[in-house]
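Project standup — Tuesday

K.O.: blocked on the structure for the chain from last sprint. Re-posting the sequence here as requested.
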Amino acid sequence: MQYIGIYVNRERDKDLSATNMAAEALIRCGKTVLVDREYASELNIDVRFVPHDEMLAKAELIIALGGDGTILKIIADAASHNIPVLGINLGHLGFLTQAEKDDQKVFERILNEDFTINAAMMLEAKVFRNGREVSQHHALNDIILRGDGAKMISLEVEVDGTVTNRYLADGIIVATSTGSTAYSLSCGGPIVHKQLDCIILTPICPHTLKSRCIVIPPDSSVILRFDPAYCAEANLKADGNPVGHLNPGDYIEIVRSEKRAPLATLNTHNYFDVIRKKLSD
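H.V.: unblocked you, prediction finished:
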């Protein structure tokens, strides 16, 4: 492993001190470090400043400096190029990250390749309008459909051709096991071990006590439709990023993606230790 890319969340590393520290640690051991060329005027170290596409073409590992959101921003591109991503937490919870910013030993473990690549399940959401597919989106954590603004939304959920539920709620989260510790968890969804492939359906603030989260097999097809009588437009997000609006008559089909997210997990990293620590902080 010679070429290592660094993908940084500038909001979390405003002075690029964490980027500088990571790059210097890797350069000292003879690695070629690839950094986005937009930071060329601010980093006075011997890294190779390249366009984003070139980093994806050459990197054998990407270190994401930020939090879970930073990993989610790079993971779809990394999955397309089959490049593992290892996160170092500069943020808050950091369920997907592998070390905190002041952990000096993490670079020694990276250089010794003391990590395992876990190919995590991703979701693919297809938006249909007038019977035609108009857009496609991939997500590692979740696909979220909500009403426009603060309005309630009336949702019909179909699984493998059968209507399983109708929700009057603020929206719905369709999550993977990786995403079970994200927004789905805060809405009452279960924690599902990251090595399990599944799809989790979690309503957001349902307006009935009978509504419950459902966990379904990973090869299921989920179709979401909404009733425009409650709201004229619905908003779609993939991994927290707005990706489109749905008009009356539009619907979404969500399936397991052919892409899998290559997440690098340190061999010293224990899933249950992370869950216990993060949820007790």
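K.O.: great, moving the ticket to review. Residues 122-258 form a domain with the Tumour Suppressor Smad4 fold (CATH 2.60.200.30). The chain has two domains: 3-113, 122-258.
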